[in-house]
Amino acid sequence: xxxxxxxxxxxxxxxxxxxxxxxxxxxxxxxxxxxxxxxxxxxxxxxxxxxxxxxxxxxxxxxxxxxxxxxxxxxxxxxxxxxxxxxxxxxxxxxxxxxxxxxxxxxxxxxxxxxxxxxxxxxxxxxxxxxxxxxxxxxxxxxxxxxxxxxxxxxxxxxxxxxxxxxxxxxxxxxxxxxxxxxxxxxxxxxxxxxxxxxxxxxxxxxxxxxxxxxxxxxxxxxxxxxxxxxxxxxxxxx
Length: 239
Prior knowledge:
By secondary structure, the chain is α/β, with parallel strands linked by helices. It has one domain: Aldolase class I (TIM Barrel, Alpha-Beta Barrel). It is 40% helix and 15% strand. The chain has helices spanning 28-38, 51-57, 59-67, 89-96, 110-122, 150-160, 173-183, 201-208, 218-221, 226-238, and strands at residues 17-21, 47-49, 74-81, 101-104, 126-130, 165-167, 188-191, 212-216. Strands 1-8-7-6-5-4-3-2 form an eight-stranded parallel sheet. α6 (150-160) links the parallel β5 and β6. α1 packs parallel to α3 (59-67). It starts with 16 loop residues before the first strand and ends with a helix.
């Protein structure tokens, strides 16, 4: 089991378990609706934003729209950050410093992973590291490009640098168990891949343990009643 240091600071999300709405919507109006209808729901821990909003509208406008309704942490997911050269990590971190945390999938090697983690630390950003994704044909054994042992190497490298927060695939509970054994019970897990991608909230919650956050996108923002749906889904996470 990898032992990480205690240098990464405070927890990104105060709750041990929560729902994180993935704000992969196309307009600021849709974002405001999603946040306004979920911000008072017990169990919402943070909001995750990405390119669908930040590219057309800019990070400041997106953060401003969220802050109209919530002061919860905002996590920027570059989809997929950490895949460039080591030197661009500083530019990335400086660009994201108004957020509370970022998600990185450092698939271009350990030197990039180390440099980007350190760059984010310089800007006091929380760092969440992903290694394995949810879709088919990702790992080589499933017809993909990524070596089967690459995710474990990514997670181990991050943990050796003091990272405690990790993205693991919510529709692969057996893999979550493997990574929990690798990283230990103090690791904090974040999981996408539910509902539309076939993942079970209950199965993943059991596999991940007490420190776990479910990332929910289409299951929330396409619901007819977003507020009601958020409350219903939170029951599976909080119990």
